[in-house]
Design a protein that fits this description.
With about 425 residues, the chain is an alpha+beta fold. The protein folds into 2 domains: about 210 residues, Immunoglobulin-like (Sandwich); about 100 residues, no CATH class. Helices cover about 35% and strands about 30% of the residues. The protein has an 11-stranded mixed beta sheet. It has a 4-stranded antiparallel beta sheet with strand order 9-10-15-12, with no helix packed on it. The longest helix is centred in the C-terminal third of the chain and has 42 residues. It is globular. The N terminus is likely disordered.
Length: about 425
């Protein structure tokens, strides 16, 4: 029965669609990865403030656990919700083949169950044993009162299919979360030392098992000191659990960190996993990547537009002697500066596109279909940039050369000789 224990949850990933790449290509049949190789997809959304953190992690894997694939259970699920400062309401559901589970129950309890009704009456008389065997929840240690515990069941004698629901309350929250590090073990790869887990303000956990695989959603809000402020800049730091740090896993994970509003990302570490988007810092961990020691993000006020700087300066100069002459000179300089800024933006955009293609290649070099999809998704944007004069013809041609080179690499062709 320990097979139903909620294990370390490792989940869904939505790889970022904000990276710009190039030109559509006809789909090419490919073997992305071995058909029998399954990986966890994980997506974290973290919203820190100076005194707390809001966190959502969701994910899944398209592979059923052994106790479902062998036909014993068809489906199982658990729902947990914090309904009071010392109260987590738990609902569990199991749909199983009684003829197979009966053997497991008799072995675990050391007694025979002639019928399903006999088994259910036994569970109702002492639900703590079944809750522990199925879900690894120690009812005595976690303060589960049987006076508020309910057991429901349904049974089809023709098919031997059975359904079992249990409802109960966990009232010793620190023991449940802090004593065994349960919340930290559920999250994928994080060290929650800066989080006051024993003072959760919101907690919801859903997990489902069926023949298609496993999926889960975990969200919580709690006091935390992950974010600090220095002047107008904010710094966020979260460590990586020692169980993950320096190791690789069959996981694809995206970590989105939403920094304070009205700021923009200035620094991110590790840089090779980072993608800044406004005030959101995204870290992408592909299958096989080594987990770093920590993730760090620095954000600050958005850079002022050049026109704003001009007007702010003019408002001061107009009140000083010679201000009108200074304004006339500034007007000329502003046009020169705007032209230089346009050239700078073109260069910045060109290098961003160039580096983005390399990033896409690093992420999807073993997944040709996904590689082509990413290229197709942004092709119209590239043409639009050229038409709007945001990149030059020469830059556009160089990007095409880079694209063709990466395509050949993906398909195993040697790169062209350097000129």
């Amino acid at each position: 029965m320990e097979r139903l224990r909620p294990s370390k949850v490792i989940l869904f990933i939505s790889i970022l669609a904000t990276i710009l790449v190039l030109l559509s290509i006809a789909p090419v049949p490919s073997m992305c990865q071995p058909a029998d190789e399954k990986i966890w997809y994980v997506h974290d959304t973290i919203e820190p403030s100076l005194d707390e953190v809001k966190w959502v992690e969701e994910g899944g894997i398209q592979e059923a656990p052994s106790w479902i694939s062998d036909g014993s259970w068809y489906q199982a699920s658990v729902r947990q919700s914090l309904v009071g400062s010392n109260d987590i309401f738990v609902e569990t559901y199991e749909y199983f083949n009684w003829s197979l589970v009966r053997q497991i129950a008799e072995y675990s309890y050391g007694r025979a169950f002639d019928t399903f009704d006999v088994f259910i009456e036994f569970v109702k008389s002492d639900p703590g044993q079944w809750i522990y065997l199925s879900w690894q929840i120690d009812t005595e240690w976690y303060g589960v009162s049987f006076n508020t515990t309910k057991v429901k069941s349904s049974y089809n004698e023709t098919t031997a299919d059975a359904e079992l629901w249990t409802y109960f309350h966990i009232t010793r929250i620190p023991e449940y979360f802090v004593g065994e590090g349960r919340l930290e073990s559920w999250l994928t790869g994080f060290d929650l030392t800066p989080v006051s887990i024993g003072s959760l303000e919101l907690f919801e956990f859903h997990k489902d098992w069926n023949k298609n695989g496993i999926s889960y959603n975990l969200r919580f809000r709690a006091p935390a000191n992950m974010l600090s402020q220095h002047g107008e800049n904010f710094t966020f730091t979260i460590g990586v659990s020692s169980y993950y740090r320096g190791y690789t896993f069959k996981i694809q994970q995206v970590i989105d960190i939403n920094m304070p509003a009205n700021t923009e990302i200035r620094e991110m570490s590790p840089l090779n996993m980072s993608i800044p988007r406004g005030n959101t810092a995204s870290f992408v961990i592909a299958k096989g990547d080594t987990y770093p020691g920590q993730f760090t993000v620095v954000s600050g006020p958005p850079a002022k537009p050049f026109s704003q700087i001009v007007w702010e300066g003019a408002s001061l100069w107009v009140l000083t002697p010679g201000g009108w002459a200074a304004m006339a000179t500034l007007t000329v300089l502003s046009f020169t500066g705007m032209r230089g800024r346009r050239i700078w933006r073109r260069g910045k955009l060109y290098h961003h596109l160039y580096n983005s293609m390399v990033t896409i290649y690093d992420l999807y070099s073993t997944d040709v279909i996904k590689f082509h999809q990413e290229m197709a998704n942004v092709s119209t944007s590239i043409f639009k940039l050229l038409i709007e004069d945001k990149i030059t013809d020469d830059q556009f041609e160089k990007l095409l050369v880079r694209r063709d080179d990466l395509l050949k690499r993906v398909h195993g062709e040697p790169p062209p000789p350097q000129r």
